[in-house]
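User: Second chain of the day. Same drill as before.
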Amino acid sequence: MIKHIEKKLLTAAALALCGVCAISVSSCTRAPAALTADTCVQVRDPFVLEHEGVYYMYGTGLAWDGYGCVTSKDLQVWSEPVKVYEPEGDCDGEGDWWAPECHYYNGSFYLFATYRSAATGKRGVGIFRSADPLGPFELITGGHVTPKEHDAIDGTLYVDEEGQPWMVYVGEWTSNEDGVGDMMAAKLSEDLTAFVSEPIRLFRAADGRGYGNITDGPFLYRTAKGRLIMLWSNFNSKDYCVCVAYSDNGKIDGTWRQQPGALYEQTKNRPDGGHGMLFTAPDGTLTLAIHSPNWGTDENPTTAVFIPLDDIGDTLAAKEDNRICTRLFYRLYYMLKG
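Assistant: Same format as last time:
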């Protein structure tokens, strides 16, 4: 009985704080812009890998046919794009060279990247390997590793606490009769050349809180308190945004629930943006990389933008959003969820 009363009180407090935060969001001014860095690198779906003091940023649009990368030692001055993969051999790609991610795993570098197959007409994810982050990369999955009969995009690597590698990827809305995107996962072989389990659905775009039907850009992270969360992107009433989902049991195959609010969304002081991932800046700051705005123009092109974050225990918060009510709300929210 006491626990029930405590839970009701916490619920009321969290809802009240939610209302307070909603008011302050509309009335507050943005923190100093220096906290957010626009790289001026024109790219979509940025993915940053640090290796031996050098930052490698991969993304859509850095190579016309295949995949490209730019490098920096300070996250401010970036090189010209270097092509890290030229289509050849088993790759029958004919377009949609999207969202390359580079992961260092078991002594090699692996690209998880999307392309459209000439044979099937479907988008899918292939895995490519190299001894160097600048390539050349070689396709090791003999084509798409994702199911060839469906459009699948935005594959990412997740290694669970038992050391089992997984691919988390988007089951694209374009292949679903109801037009709603899925977030999917499958176990990978130790050498990352094949799926060794049937894909499972983690959640659907429609499971979100008022979001659209798109699932984009999964990226997994374990918080300071051990909670497994996933950044992913969709559209809300303010356009493209970064959402947060979490596993109820801390495992990839747990029940995934959607955290209220958005980690990043459009405000009166900043454009929309999304397809987020996390990396650590030279000063140790946890940093969110997104592309913004989602629909660029000649006057305001889409670029990679870096946003400093705080790990607040169960979830993440932008350093710019230093309002006590926001952080207290999420603390209460996850106390209720257990």
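The longest helix spans residues 2-27.

User: Great, on to the next one.
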